Amino acid sequence: MLKTTLLSLALVTGLGAQAVAQSLNICVEGAYPPFSFTTESGSVAGFDIDIANALCDQLGYDCTLVKTGWDGIIPALLERKCDAIVASMAITPERKQVVDFSMKYYNTPARFVGREGMTMDDLKDAVVGVQRGTVHHDYMRGEHPRVDIKLYGSQDEAFLDLAAGRIDAVMGESIASATGFLDTDSGEGFAFFGPPISIPKYHGIGAGIAVRQGEEDLRNAFSHAIGELRANGTYQKINQKYFDFDIFGG
Amino acid sequence: MKAGLILESWPLFAEGVWITVQLTVLALALGLCLAVPVAFVRLRRVRGLSALADGYVALFRGTPLLVQLYMVYFGLSQFEWLRDSWAWALLREAWWCALITFALNSGAYASEILRGALAATPAGELEAARALGLRPRQVDRLVLLPAALRRSLPQLGNEVVFMLHGSAVASVITLQDILGAGRALNARYYLAYEGLLTAAALYMLVTLVVVGVFRALERRYLRHLALAPVRVRSRLPAMR
């Protein structure tokens, strides 16, 4: 009896190692250009998507991308609708209480966007839009508790309302703000104001890949693969496609 | 289940209930005001106005509330001339966008309920009113409309519940209604269902109140339709 148990255990572990090399569902968002956006044909594309695919190739996984709204993305991971999140999610102490993270795959600062000529002094009377449940939401609550904030389900919606004049400023990640808004037609007349902001307490230590707690193998595999993509030039190739500087950060 | 977090966030939910109730009640009141003339126009086939009323009802009953709200909130704000007009003072606020959309939506549904009730008024009732010497206007105002409103009470109660639940879409345009509060709680602590469960319980609570109110209204205004005979107070001394 014991022998059979041991035998089956060995079999299971053996198979397990093989099963890892099979399929993996990855949650992505699709409303956060240039990191993640939905193309006209309805598929997802962007830096996050390319990184996710490159990591899967590197690790030999057969990956399926699952498009999930930001609000439900951590719950989706916890409920096993997917096995990892590649969605520009900042590695923060708060999130670490619920999920585990790989090493960062990029790190860029946050910035305010507002009408050209706006300054930090104007902030106290401004209505600021942020995406609900993001580090920027935490930052606004922690550092500017008196400022009136409006919560959006996605970053794109916040910029729509900024362009429409419903809000005075948007707090968000700088590259997504530049590519997703300032560089587009609707971003005309708007600009960054205030300094680039990166406070570890709120903004964490860069964007990482989230996995369920306790899934050490998967987490380490991702961290390792990120290092390899950096080393073999794949990362730089993807980086170049979207940005003219290295967004990996110091 | 993190009950502590839910209890800690009670101000968030209290605010949410207030916004939901406020939007629902105002939208229903405005909707009903709109529904009465629309129902009469559709019943009497008033030239010129009928096509307009038909189009309005078809549009708002034919499309989902969520789509209507998106069109009003994100759609209208795309037009610069509209942003420069006086209307922008209202339309720039998410709250007004929600109220306008909900009122128009509810008005379309209520007008259909009312039109049905108006059309179903027994001819004898109207004949009796005319026999009393009432002029056509007076018949409409004193007999037809009150009778139709009475008869539509149960369906209007249904419409109130639908509007209450439909108002949950307000959370997509930055309003912190009941669902918005639930989502904010979920987002803040990365929860899967606690916020939604609390929101569901609160919607249910408000619904029960609405149902209770309409039961009372029906008891009062539809007494003549009640099946049970009116209870007569016993003359016997109460048992002790």
UniProtKB/TrEMBL annotation, chain B:
GO molecular function terms listed in the Swiss-Prot or TrEMBL record: transmembrane transporter activity
GO cellular component, one term: ATP-binding cassette (ABC) transporter complex
Entry protein name: ABC transporter permease subunit
Predominant cellular place of this UniProt entry's protein: membrane
InterPro entries linked: AA_ABC_transptr_permease_3TM, ArtM/GltK/GlnP/TcyL/YhdX-like, MetI-like, MetI-like_sf
Residue ranges of every copy of the ABC transmembrane type-1 domain listed in the record: 17-215
GO BP term, example: amino acid transport
Localization: Cell inner membrane; Cell membrane
Annotated family: Belongs to the binding-protein-dependent transport system permease family. HisMQ subfamily.
Alphabetized UniProt keyword annotations: Cell inner membrane, Cell membrane, Membrane, Transmembrane, Transmembrane helix, Transport
CDD domains for the chain: TM_PBP2
Membrane association type: Multi-pass membrane protein
Species, as recorded: Halovulum marinum
UniProt-listed SUPFAM superfamilies: MetI-like
TM helices/strands, residue ranges: 17-41, 160-179, 191-214
